Structures are given as C-alpha cells and as structure tokens.
Known about the structure:
Blueprint: H1 2-12, H2 19-39, H3 41-57, H4 65-77, H5 83-92, H6 94-108, H7 111-124, H8 128-145, H9 148-170, H10 192-217, H11 225-234, H12 238-266, H13 277-292, H14 296-317, H15 323-337, H16 343-347, H17 353-372, H18 377-384, H19 391-405, H20 408-424, H21 430-445, H22 456-462, H23 466-469, H24 474-498
Amino acid sequence: MKASLSQAFGNNFLGSSPLWYKQTIIAFLILNPIVLVSMGPFVAGWLLIVEFIFTLAMALKCYPLQPGGLLAIEAVLLGLTTSEGVYHEVESNIEVILLLMFMVAGIYFMKDMLLFIFNKLLIKIRSKVVISLVFSFAAALLSAFLDALTVTAVLISVSVGFYSVYHKVASDQSNNKSHDLSGDELVLPVNQEDLAKFRAFLRSLLMHGAVGTALGGVCTLVGEPQNLLIAHVAGWDFIEFFIRIAPVSMPVLAAGLLTVVILEKTKWFDYGAKLPENVRNILKNFADEEADKSTAKHKAQLVVQGLVAVILVLSLALHVAEVGLVGLMVIVLLTSMNGITEEHRIGHAFEEALPFTALLVVFFSVVSVIHSQHLFQPFIDFVLSFPTDKQPIMFFIANGLLSAISDNVFVATVYISEIRSALDEGLITREHFDLLAIAVNTGTNLPSVATPNGQAAFLFLLTSAIAPLLRLSYGKMVWMALPYTVVLSVVGGICVSYLAM
C-alpha cells in the first residue's frame, strides 16, 4: 500500500512530464537552499534565473507555470524576495496583466473576420517572400501604434484557425467540432508530408511576424511599455520620441525586412517552407464553403467584427484608455452585438490567455528576486565606468543582454533611473542623457529578440496553443530568431554609436 501510494505521488507530480524532468525540478528545489547557505543570496539568485529559463526552454515538456511557480514560492520562503516585493512587481505591470486578461479574449471574438481576411491573403499571394514581408511589415506597423502582445494574439488566432481547418481535413474529421488538434494519430498517411510542410510554413510566418512586433515596437512611444517609461523620464512627447529614435529604428526596420527576404530566399535557419498546393486548395475550398453557407446573421457578425476592429485600432492609436480596458470594451461590444450571452461561450475566450497571465506573475516573482538581490548592479557599475564616448554602445549591449534573460521593462527602469540620477547630480550633460536614453530604449527592444523570455510577445507565442501544434519549442525559437538577433544587434549598435544624436 505504501509503495503504491508513494508511486502515485510520484506519478501525480508534474503529471505526464518525463521522469528526468521531474527529477531535475526536485534537484533544483533541493539545491537552492544549499547554495543560499553556502554561497550567499547573490549566487542563489542567479541560479534561480538559470533554473527558471530552463523551465521555459522545456515548455513543450511541461507548461512552465508549475515548475516555475514552485521555484518562485521557494524563493519567497528562502527570503530571496518577499511577497510584498512580488506584489509590487505585479502592481507595476498591471497594464500588461489587464491586456492579457481582456485584449486576447477580445481578439478571440474577432477570429472569424481575421481568418476570412488572412485566408484571402494566403490564397491570393503565392510568393512566400511577399506573404512573409506582409506578415512582418503588418506586425511592425500595428505594433508601432497598438501593442506587440495584441498583434501576436492576432497572429496566433489566425494560425490556429488555419491549422484547425487543414488538420481536420487531413484527419478526415471535417465535421467533427471537437477534433483534437494535438494528436496526429488520425492524420491520413497521404497527408503526413503536407502537414509537416504546413507546420514549417506557419512557423516561419509566425516568427517573421513576432520579430516584426519588435521592429515596430521600438519606433514609437506607445510601441512597448518601457518606451512610455523612458519617454516619461526623458520628457519626450510622441513626436520627439519618434524623431530621436528614428536614426536607429528606421535603419533597423529596413535591415529587418531585408533579412526576411534573405532568409526566405536562402532557406536558412528553417525558413523558406512554402504552402503546399494541396493545403492551399483546402483553404480555398474552406473559404468558398463558408461563403456559400454564409447567412445574413453570419454576414452581420463579420460586419460587427470589422467595425469593432476599427474602433480597437483607433482607441489604441489615440491611447484613449489602457490597453486592457480597451480589450474589455471590445469583449462587451462583440458579445452583445453578436448575441454571445451564455457564460460558457464567453469563458472559452479566456482559456488561451489566463494560463500565460499566471505564468507572467511567476515571471515577475523572479524579477522581484533580481530587484531584491541587486543582481544587475555589477553590470550597471561596469557600464557606467566606461568613458563617456563609449557608454552609449555599452548601454545598448548591456541592456540587450540583460533583457534577453529578464524583463525588458525592469531592465529599462533600472538603467533609465541610474542615468536620470547621474543627470540630476550633474555628472552628465542633457545631450549625453538623451543619447543614453536612446541606447536604453533600443537595447531593451532589439537584441532581446534572442530568447523567448526577452520579449513578452515571444514568451506568449512560446506558451500559446499554437506552439506545440507547430513544434515551436524554445530552442527552435532561439534558432529561428538568431539571424534577426545578429542583424538587429549589429545594425542597432552601429546606429547608436554613429547616427543617434
């Protein structure tokens, strides 16, 4: 009885995750207090960061919320941070949490219209280079005025829609509304190769689009949360922010779009996969069937979704309210106007975002450890020790490296506060402060595409429903982002050194 009970506890722990993964997490939990006692909180804090990144890297083995949450709880119990410190980080990022809770759910109620529009694009545009540029540039343009997470939610919703349409047909389950997309057992042998190619095709489009959110997000005051923070400290308005960042952001945007073309032409880094003709025909047939059976009610719903989409874009571009509250407005408008009034139908919209919202709070716990133990202080002191003319590029590099492993909003907060203090104390001139502020902004936005934890939009993509369907793992994202990381970092660094003024 005892053996079976202990075995049951072991089986229940982290569910169906591999045994080696369970043993690794247990080893982390045992090792942390030992390291804290023997080597101190600074080393223990950095070990915790490495362990948390490991849970993100193994996201396809186990959703990071559970192992990451256990590490966060232990960090509080060990005194590496406090519950008050975690709450402060959550409070400071309430805009992002509201965005995830409501905006992603709002996008869910627009999926019919989005699928209709993007399906037309996929069918009409046969060139993979052109469709990749469309995804990347559209994501950049929208992210400059809206929000990277919102744009990523749109891309994910569209991709899930496409994948669902083909996977059902490939499995001969077209009329099965409850068909399981995660399993390939029912996929007919004749469709296996096309399914693999379709996955590669969608993977590349998603990565082009995700990097596009970074290309556009760096450009404007509202593009990323840290941009607003930096602009507030620097005293820049929307126009001044754009003008000051443009000598870096515009060349980087051009280089990023050129990278899209090169990657698709060369097929390097797992890009270049084309849409199989059989899949294109199935998507076309789906569009035709939907058009044939479209009722007046369905057409009215599409019209409402289109009108609300326009309201959404205008609301975010004009910043009439925080993004999350705009998302709540979208939910109310779409559900009320389209007759979605049952609680269980509304509840489905929140299934995608709430697990990630919980994961993000766990992530903020790790950020609280960084804050409490001053883990980044040596990097700050090191950069500030450089001669004045070398500081901009060093700030760009340091912010990029730290943002790739941490929260770029937190990194920006730390660095912009330090240089503001230096300005107030008369240690640097206003001109030098502006140059360092540009370096902080571009550093936290561009090199951070290196890892999924470097950008909230990337992390959202990694932990979304589409990632396991397309076999988009942490390692795969790092590999596919690598050419962009190099291009954005090199071009951005050169521009910060020689063009920013």
